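4.2 Preliminary Data

To establish feasibility before requesting continued support, the project team ran the inverse folding procedure on a target of 316 residues. The structure was first converted into the token representation described in Section 3, and no sequence information of any kind was made available to the design step. The complete token record follows.
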């Protein structure tokens, strides 16, 4: 057997922890119930299996993966895993850990979480674009390009849970608009809707160096989620090489092996250049956001699909 269910988690927190109730997070109580279920029905394996090229995996096995290096992972996830003797793999980024920056994607998530009517928000983004020099026709062209789901064969990510307006807003604010314009618009919207300064908001939002060392001291695994949390699939080969090199320096900083390491593609975005670069730089395997049971059969080791924690919601 080489099949394994790789489960993907993002925010895991208790209800009282965050004032952003509409944010898409897994409640800590549900997390514990899910772990009970997994422990009863699966072999919850050590994620180091991702670096071992093993194919004799017991039936019904799973591993747990945690993206983006949120503070939740040390405050809620880590103590619970430790108590149960379960190991997980965590994918923090360099800019949040070493440079105290906040990811654009997290700002966008929070803006979206407090705006129920996504159509009105699109209109607001359109107005802001126009005030900053984009023509109505260019905005419409972007709408046509980014509001539809990419074709099945594309390596561009799809999203299993978002409606069309949300998909468009995420895409346009994360990469669809030119960088300085989208950063400007995100800042304006964040200020208007979240109402606290970004640097205050980002304080204690992510794992810091001590948190990561604590995870490593307790035999948890750290993998790469790139340094800058980028859409690798949209970068040139040289840009990808530079980004992944920087990601390796991040692993080096924490004395994580750079001979046998695991990549987790931000936004599930990659292409054939990414895989070539990873091979060259001694990466052992990479996980995506495609929802399927993974197969550690060597052929697809750089395109391992993952199940989302929500896929297990109805089981326990
Ligand atoms: Zn991410």
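Position-by-position output of the design step:
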């Amino acid at each position: 057997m080489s099949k394994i269910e790789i489960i993907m988690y993002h925010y895991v927190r208790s209800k009282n922890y965050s004032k952003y109730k509409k944010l898409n997070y897994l409640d800590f109580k549900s997390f514990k119930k899910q772990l009970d279920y997994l422990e009863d029905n699966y072999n919850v394996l050590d994620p180091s299996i991702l670096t071992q090229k093993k194919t004799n995996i017991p039936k019904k096995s799973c591993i747990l993966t945690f993206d983006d290096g949120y503070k939740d992972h040390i405050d809620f996830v880590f103590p619970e895993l430790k108590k149960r003797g379960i190991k997980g793999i965590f994918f923090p980024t360099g800019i949040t850990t070493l440079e105290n920056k906040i990811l654009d994607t997290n700002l966008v998530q929070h803006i979206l979480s407090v705006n129920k009517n996504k159509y009105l928000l699109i209109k607001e983004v359109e107005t802001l674009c126009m005030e900053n020099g984009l023509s109505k026709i260019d905005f419409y062209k972007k709408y046509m390009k980014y509001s539809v789901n990419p074709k099945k064969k594309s390596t561009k990510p799809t999203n299993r849970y978002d409606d069309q307006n949300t998909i468009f807003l995420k895409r346009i604010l994360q990469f669809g608009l030119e960088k300085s314009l989208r950063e400007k618009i995100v800042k304006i919207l964040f200020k208007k809707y979240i109402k606290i300064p970004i640097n205050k908001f980002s304080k204690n939002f992510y794992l810091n160096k001590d948190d990561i060392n604590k995870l490593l001291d307790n035999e948890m695994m750290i993998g790469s989620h790139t340094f800058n949390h980028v859409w690798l699939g949209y970068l040139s080969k040289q840009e990808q090489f530079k980004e992944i090199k920087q990601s390796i320096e991040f692993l080096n900083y924490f004395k994580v092996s750079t001979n046998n390491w695991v990549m987790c593609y931000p936004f599930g975005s990659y292409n054939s250049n990414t895989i070539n670069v990873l091979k060259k730089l001694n990466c052992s395997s990479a996980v995506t956001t495609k929802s399927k049971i993974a197969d550690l059969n060597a052929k697809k080791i750089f395109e391992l699909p993952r199940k989302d924690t929500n896929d297990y919601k109805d089981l326990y």
